[in-house]
Amino acid sequence: MTENLTTVLKQKANNLRVHSIISTSEAGSGHPTTCMSAAEIVSALFFHAMRYDPQDSHNPNNDRFILSKGHAAPLLYAAWAEAGIISAEDLLTLRRIDSDLEGHPTPRLEWVDVATGSLGQGLSIGVGMAINAKYLDKSDFRVYVLMGDGETAAGGVWEAVALAAHYGLNNLIGIVDVNGFGQSQQSMYGFDTDSYCRRFEAFGWKTIGVDGHNMDEILGALNGAKTTADRPTMIVAKTFKGRGVSFLENKQGWHGKPIPKGEQLDTALKDLGPISPNSSFQTEKPPAPSPVAEPRISAVGPPEYQIGEEEATRNGYGSGLAKLGDANPLVIALDGDVKNSTYTEQFMEKHDDRYFEMFIAEQNLVGTGIGLSKCGKIPFVSTFAAFLTRAGDHVRMSAISQANIKYVGSHCGVSIGEDGPSQMGLEDLAMFRALPGSVVLYPSDVVAAERLVAEVAVYEGIAYIRTSRPKTPVIYANDEQFPIGGSKILRFSDSDQATIIAAGVTLHEALKAYGQLKVDGISTRIIDLYSVKPVDTKTLLNAAAATNNTLITVEDHYPEGGLGEAVLSAVASEGIEVHKLAVNGIPRSGKADELLEAHGISAACIVRKVKEIC
Amino acid sequence: MTENLTTVLKQKANNLRVHSIISTSEAGSGHPTTCMSAAEIVSALFFHAMRYDPQDSHNPNNDRFILSKGHAAPLLYAAWAEAGIISAEDLLTLRRIDSDLEGHPTPRLEWVDVATGSLGQGLSIGVGMAINAKYLDKSDFRVYVLMGDGETAAGGVWEAVALAAHYGLNNLIGIVDVNGFGQSQQSMYGFDTDSYCRRFEAFGWKTIGVDGHNMDEILGALNGAKTTADRPTMIVAKTFKGRGVSFLENKQGWHGKPIPKGEQLDTALKDLGPISPNSSFQTEKPPAPSPVAEPRISAVGPPEYQIGEEEATRNGYGSGLAKLGDANPLVIALDGDVKNSTYTEQFMEKHDDRYFEMFIAEQNLVGTGIGLSKCGKIPFVSTFAAFLTRAGDHVRMSAISQANIKYVGSHCGVSIGEDGPSQMGLEDLAMFRALPGSVVLYPSDVVAAERLVAEVAVYEGIAYIRTSRPKTPVIYANDEQFPIGGSKILRFSDSDQATIIAAGVTLHEALKAYGQLKVDGISTRIIDLYSVKPVDTKTLLNAAAATNNTLITVEDHYPEGGLGEAVLSAVASEGIEVHKLAVNGIPRSGKADELLEAHGISAACIVRKVKEIC
After folding, report:
1. Would you call B431 and A436 a contact, using CB atoms and an 8 Å cutoff?
2. Which residue of B24, B121, B422 to mutate against A (max A Cβ within 10 Å)?
């Protein structure tokens, strides 16, 4: 390294420290000491090692940077200021309601792909981007992920670590900023950087230990990482929180505290010295994006079923996804070692270059999907609905990241039968409804399942499709359409006494109940509410008006947060009577039919309820 | 090992295989090949190595066994049959709706502490039990956790691995059944048992590799594990799925498939040979439980605040938990490196022998809590509400386990301010409502917070308390009681035009709105719905009847699954008009007041809504 380069980068690192302190003091909140331990690392990355074009955030060949330790956001913003991407004055707007420089990075900012701040997720997202570069786009860009030491306690990190080695992601470079402290105390391993190296090595990574404040060592490590041929690299950097300021460096009690204006701020700025004038830096520019042909997207092949044929909606998902894969080269499928149950395997059999096995590691399953979505792919992320709760926080953050990601949860409800409650998805509608901007879909037959797979592929944003294990009859013609936000009125007359609203397995129970009630002289309207979010409010209100203002909802889901409450919310302000049937109590093993009855959502239960009300 | 012992244990292992096959074939579903790889291990544990009294499942000195690979349930049940705990005929009722021998073990069974079946959770639960033995009860019992190889891809396992080493849990013994296959394909590492050993060792465990079908090696390893002084032990056993039956052993495609009755079942039983007659076995009996004095539980000290004093409910949690700790020696506190934000640190400062730092690893935070609860402790599990979603599946399973565990989520809502959406709990009410048997509580001031901490300690089951970051005024007298399922009517008159229902931060917004509306001549009733589940339906219905059948709910939470939908569900069948105010859109950084306004839940927003309706 030329002495010039090292000197310039060190000056820039110091500038980053000054900016981090000033911006957080101005904001009155933030994490300056966290920023200060990683200043040399970020300087080395942004002003030398990363290959990117500061004038063009959209160049698909840019190296990617993920600030997994998201609370160091001021450091990232400072790097942009030093790179000329934003102005130093902008930094003073940190955390204000009218500034996009939020407390933790979100993709409101053009240079941020994913929201971070919930620790332990960044590496998974990096895995997704690295997979995209290496296996899909065959692009040279690298992915850099900066983590804190405390955050490596999070299991999601080790899911990503294992998979990255398994897929030989040599284009993924992680850096752990070992400053010895978490938020409230010393981290588990303190400054024992060997422990970090041993663990990453044991999982198959190359590791390089450095003094995180020695610019030459950092530059050497980053160079070394670029040449690793067959495995990802983890740079383990020993650092000090609050580095550079006498009363902060390696001192406890300053996590998440800005330096108060006045004497303390003055002392800090004096310790650091003035901002060096903006010395020019040179990063390698990536190749200009080659003119990429628009991906050839054709129409998705239609369903091909017979009315009355018995098939499970999970199978409709499988065949629908395979057809979608034929039609759209951007569609990628990820699954958590249950592809022969979710039927993602049908996609894999036709498009194995676009299928990635993620093993029993659902947090990384989702994080990788988020990373792929941010590279312009359309990832379908599948496992049992119940196991998507394992990735609850990654799913939550995917909404804040506004990721274009499609979740599919199979084996919903008690209707899975004998495997019992550990395998039953009974809270997934609640989980996916409570995501801003999501759509939640629940097909009742395989035609609907195939159609909805195609629908969500062209919907921009988070979508969730819920599929069932048991076979149910085909009730829709192959050319039936299922727009998001719609519903289907399957039975109606002029003398309906109530409307029964259901989806999935309970829709078929409702249809059976319809028949039994008709025999007993009670006419009911039946609605398939395949779109649980957004719901078809207009149809619900019309149905209520036509049927004594009486709605009955039936769902293979717990009573809270699901289809029933979705209907309630839609009609709430109109004073309509809604009766909710849902799974009562903790379910158990048994035959599907027995469980539907025991847990209050079978045809017989519906009939009883209707008779009780009408 | 005497040849007799080895022979007997091998015979018993074979019996276990026969039972596993017969019971699953009878049930028509289940995972026999998964059972068959672990038969020697389970035989060695149940008929020699574990110290327990088959006549007394409640002896607190029994060694504990957790079947983390829960789908091997038939193997566990077979072990009980061979131990004389149940009969061989009972095994034929596997998976029936009227049998407690469910598809995956649940604590309906007296010998099962926790429900398993969602892979990767058992080791965390074992950590909780081991912590209890070593640090709390000072008991000699050991904890054995049997995992599959595929499940060690789950990050939650590595959270437990790290923490177990950190706390020197030498009474925790894990066994990984490396049969090379997950559900749908070969596991990531296949039969490379060295890779497993390297990784566990790197995390600080002692590891012992064995041939999982060599009884002498297994016995040697289990003996060796018992003598390890300062660290937990992982036994890594190389095995074959389907071991013992020619057409099953190490063959793909048989995961989760019972052997069909008829020719295949006959061949399998022929390969295994007949059940050996029940040879006697000797396990070491644990000491009889010493007469344990009833824990001295005294009254919890009351809150000591002044009406109008400003304090955050998270602080009320902290002081309430500390007082509870004074009063009840069974209370344990766990936190995820945010104790100086959740204020669990106030408990730690007074009772540091009952506080355990769990670091940034929320899955293990929850799993450990479940384990402690199953040892008769009352664990309070705390972190930011948003980060509890990281443990969504462990929380889900805690309900199926009917664990007596208390969750506390701080920093709920947009009212946390500048840290921004990654730190805001906005879906936690939905998550915790959708758990069978849970109670969900949301104190509006510190008096309520302290009282509710005491309430949940005497409630048997899952409880969730939601706390806020900003300071709000004390509105209750120190002797106010807050029964679960209750509510507080804070303002009312004979001419109220609508009822506003809120809790936490928005309750104070509602009180402000009340004042503004009164000035404008509109009288409203104000209800503090501190009990979100169960809700005080009676009070809600009375209020509706008295106020034009018009209810307005306001919550610092997304619109789905929270307080508003809880009210809706309670009054649904009565045709009452409910208007719901909740956080709209993806929140952002900003001052708390600005965010309440921007996201539709401030006093001004409430006033606007009331005027619009009335």
Report:
1. no
2. B422
Query: Tokens 């470079």, residue?
Result: A173
Please answer yes or no on whether A158 and B158 come within 8 Å at the CB atom. yes
The rounded distance, in Å, linking the Cα atoms of A538 and A544 is: 10
Taking the Cβ of residue B589 and every Cβ of chain A, the question of whether any pair is shorter than 8 Å is answered with: yes
What DSSP string runs through A143-197? EEEEEESGGGGSHHHHHHHHHHHHTT-TTEEEEEEE-SB-SSSB-TTTT-HHHHH
| Residues paired with residue B231 on neighbouring β-strands, in sequence order | none
Q: Where are the alpha helices (DSSP H) in B176-276?
A: 193-202, 215-226, 263-272
What's the order of all strands across the beta sheet hosting A550-554? A488-491, A524-528, A498-502, A550-554, A577-581
- Nearest partner of A220 among A235, A230, A206, A232, judged by Cα: A235
For residues A124 and A372, what is the distance between their CA atoms, to the nearest angstrom?
Answer: 10
Residue A122 contacts by C-beta under 8 Å, 6 or more apart in sequence?
A66, A67, A68, A69, A70, A114, A116, A145, A146, A147
Active site (annotated) includes residue B362: yes
Question: Please, what is the average pLDDT of chain B?
Answer: 96
Query: Could you tell me the CA-to-CA distances from B595 to B22, B419, B513, B584 in Å, in that order?
Result: 62, 12, 17, 11
- Closest by CA position to B30, among listed B87, B84, B85, B72: B72
* Secondary structure of A403-421 in HEC code, one letter for each residue: CCCEEEEECECHHHCCCCH
Residue B234, strand partner residues: B174, B207
Q: Model-level pTM?
A: 0.98
Nearest to A151 by CA among B182, B336, B315: B336
Helix (H) or strand (E) holding B78: helix B73-82
Residue A180, phi then psi, degrees to nearest 5: 85, -10
Find, among B534, B532, B533, B541, the residue nearest to B571 by Cα: B541
Q: Is A187 on the interface with B (CB under 8 A)?
A: yes
Nearest to B141 by CA among B374, B364, B352: B374
Helix (H, G, I), strand (E, B) or coil at B427: coil
Give A230's DSSP letter: S
- CA B248-B252-B258 angle, to 5 degrees, is 55
Closest approach of B296 to chain A, Cα-based (Å): 32
Can you give the C-alpha Rg of chain B in angstroms?
A: 27
Q: A400 at the B interface (CB within 8 A)?
A: yes
pLDDT in tens, A468-497: 999 999 999 999 999 999 999 999 999 999
* For residue B2, pLDDT beyond 70: no
Chain B residues 101-160 with a CB less than 8 Å from chain A: 102-104, 106, 108, 115-120, 150-151, 153-159
Q: Where are the alpha helices (DSSP H) in A440-519?
A: 446-458, 505-519
Closest listed residue to residue A237, CA positions, set A304, A144, A323, A319: A144
Kindly state the helix (H) or strand (E) to which residue B10 belongs, with its residue range: helix B3-27
Q: In this predicted complex, what is the ipTM?
A: 0.97
pLDDT digits (tens, 9 = 90+) for A106-157: 999 999 999 999 999 999 999 999 999 999 999 999 999 999 999 999 999 9
| Of A311, A362, A427, A555, catalytic | A362
User: For residue A466, what are the β-bridge partners?
Assistant: A409
- Residue A263, C-beta contacts closer than 8 angstroms, at least 6 positions apart: none
Asked if A360's CB is within 8 angstroms of B119's CB, the reply is yes
Asked whether the beta carbons of B536 and B549 are under 8 A apart, the reply is: no
